Amino acid sequence: MEQKVIVMPKREARTVSLALPEAFSDLACFVGIWALPTETQRNTQRHTVGMEAIVEFKEAMLPKVDEIVAWLNQYELASLPEEAKTLMYLLLSFAEIAPAVEFYQQPAVIDGYDPRRFVADETFTMRPAI
């Protein structure tokens, strides 16, 4: 069986601001773990931290999702301030962990493939630029 090797070009390193809007300061303890700028980083984190950390993050985020979305909607996506980007990255991580909680009750997809084989195209043109 032929094995396909995917070589990804090096990407520029992106740093994430640790600042959050004051209204969401109670989520600050999750920024260092979950405010990740790429899909690949979020997917890797989901498979790394364990279910206890995933559930803790879910329980903190779920009651605030509507409020977070409403707060983010005051900005154009292309011009989010740094604190809004941090909040958006948390929201995207929340979306990443949802299947682990809602469907699988574990970080990995049941009967799924090794997640390291999945290489997201971080330049996909349909993805909003933030």
Secondary-structure topology with pairs:
Blueprint: H1 31-34, H2 39-49, H3 51-61, H4 65-72, H5 82-104
Helix pairs in contact: 2-5, 3-5, 4-5
The class by helix and strand makeup works out as: mainly alpha
Strand runs, count: 0
Mean pLDDT: 78
Distance separating the two termini: 40 Å
Low-pLDDT ranges: 1-14
The helix/strand series, from N terminus to C terminus, equals HHHHH
Radius of gyration, taken over Cα atoms and rounded to an integer in Å:
16 Å
The coarse overall form would be: globular
Percent strand: under 5%
Biggest beta-sheet profile? none
Structure description:
This protein is an all-alpha fold. The protein has a domain at 22-103. It is 44% helix and 0% strand. The chain contains 5 helices and no strands. The chain has helices spanning 31-34, 39-49, 51-61, 65-72, 82-104. Helix 3 (51-61) crosses helix 5 and helix 4 (65-72) runs antiparallel to helix 5 (82-104). The chain starts with 30 loop residues before the first helix and ends in a 26-residue tail after the last helix.
